[in-house]
Sequence to fold (336 residues):
Amino acid sequence: GFEDVAGNKNDAVALSDALAGSFYFKDNTNPTVVKVENANPNTAVLRIAFDEPVNTSSILWDRIIVTNYANNASNTSITLTDGSASYVNEALKTVVEFTPSPDDVEKLQLASNIMTTVSNTFVYMRAGAIADMSGNPVNETTKALQADALDDRDPTSFVYFDMNMNSGRMVIKFTAAVNVSSFNRAGLQLQSKAILSASGANKMILTEPVVLNSTDGSEFTFFLGENDLNALKALRGLFTIASDTYISLTAETLDDVYGQPIRGVVSTKGENVRSFVADITSPSLVAYSLSMTSGVLQLNFSETVDLDTLQSSTMYLQANTASDVINASISSASPS
Fold:
């Protein structure tokens, strides 16, 4: 409370008798961006300070632009589309960490000339990108503000892989965008166990070019070549079920979009498949040849077949495709 000049204390006012204010002036001052304190090139998180508390639920993401130059018509700019935000200090609410959506993070990585150094890390905020607690929109920055600091970039790392043995399609997910044209198939090893040196472990290295099915990005998708896929299917106990489907990668397998090698996965700690689709496609006879001199019948199938499963009695030779023509069953055969 207070005292008068004679030292008398003021009369107490009970909560039930609280007085209404004679005047009330609503906050109508627009908040202003003070600075971009920090940026993280791995997650694209931007830590931005304001001159008063702001409301993170009022963010309009498409009014936040990350660019590589303060004020240049030919600069590279990425307009954010979505994300999440949190306060560095919940009590003060003046410093906010903006976390762009995964799609926005990938766009920034693919730009390859944004957030590689402090000198190309700028943020431009349009009016209304965020508001204060009274709903006053933030002032537009007069120019893009350079970040005070930029965290170190982490090596691009493996996240997971999926495999479809019907089509031979493999998807490898990384923490950041990779350059698909840098793929070196010799660095990718298929293995049946996490520890390649374990007893009974099988392995395979690709021998022919893969068919790329993706552009630069954090998901690297490709199809195994036909010969490699058939060779893989011919092996026993490798890529037949999820529990025998592992890969390892050397650092030379891929580069990220900045030209840096990925962080490898050693063959003693192979990564198990996340999603596995087994081969359930039946092989089809696509061609055959018969030598009446040697008696050799050669059958060509659409994929690798298991010779041990041959049932010669289910095979017939006939004059043409009509059902009523003379045909002959094969009673026995020696496959090779």
Remarks:
- The first helix runs from residue 102 to 111.
- The radius of gyration is 33 Å.
- The longest strand covers residues 169-179.
- The chain is about 5% helix and 30% strand.
